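Please produce the structure of this protein holding nickel (II) ion.
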Amino acid sequence: MTSCLQSWPEPIVRVQSLSDSGIRVIPERYVKGPSDRPSSVESSDDVDVQIQIPVIDLQNLSEETLARISSACREWGFFQVVNHGVSHELMARTREVWREFFHLPLKMKQQYANSPSTYEGYGSRLGVEKGAKLDWSDYFFLHYLPTSLRDQNKWPILPSSCRELVGKYNEEMVKLCGKLMKILSLNLGLKEEYLQQAFGSEEVGACLRINFYPKCPQPDLTLGLSSHSDPGGMTLLLPDENVSGLQVRRAHNWITVKPVPNAFIVNIGDQIQVLSNAAYKSVEHRVIVNSAKERVSLAFFYNPRGDIPIKPAPELVTEDGPALDSSMTFNEYRSFIRTRGPCGKSQVESLKSPK
Ligand code: OGA
Ligand code: NI
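Below is the modeled complex.
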């Protein structure tokens, strides 16, 4: 990795500190250009109410359930799952322990201040471009798999139950991702283990990013997280239970996701888009903030092992759908994203079909 990734180009400002300071006007560097503001492609309230990403009950994996997952992956790239087998209590406790973490004194959190070389720890920006517009959020990022990258000493020591809860939570996330990987493989007409093997079997990567979106005095001018597609394989998002904010792109609209209680929001990342030869879509999404409530979300990223080339499954390459011209490793791919920060889908779109 290049040396420019060793440190941030500008001093880091915690968005939470800005929010807590009581400013009425947000600094210029959080003010997005007119076309990137929340209202730019306004989806009317009617659209919000009527259209929602699919909600899928995993209790009974009937043909119908599998078919609904299949169309969600093709048409939306996003769906919510209920009856997923993960303890609701564990979900709530893990989210609340992270809320407590963000409310600890700044000095305590600063011990975990991160750098762009690994992103691990407490952070307030993605990307290292000097002078870039910034998002209205802070986060904590940690590695879980492969175990060689897992270092619990880098996870918060306080609140005292944090490390234990993160361990338990991540273990459940790995199980649920394994289950979904099988379903997606079968739905693609591949053998059950295909995607898992393509990800490197036991050597898959997994990490957790906890996003903290403080209250914002001018929510119409900024975003909590700019439009992006997730670079990895698959994401399981645990949203805040009472504050919405995630928006998913649907043609020219942004659909605000209404979280279903105790559900996870599942989305396809760029690597599964490539493996499926774009049958499954890694869809752009972003986060809006508001002036009344802070918001916490946990994004669990399930990724291919970093050093294996990711390319379309040969079975899915047809005359009508020639192979995307890519066999990049996830490590190579991610280093672009980490330099540039969130920028729509430009990265995966640049993998052009050869014809
Ligand atoms: C992410 C993400 C959405 C949210 O972390 O990649 O898209 O609602 N988060 O926080
Ligand atoms: Ni995302």
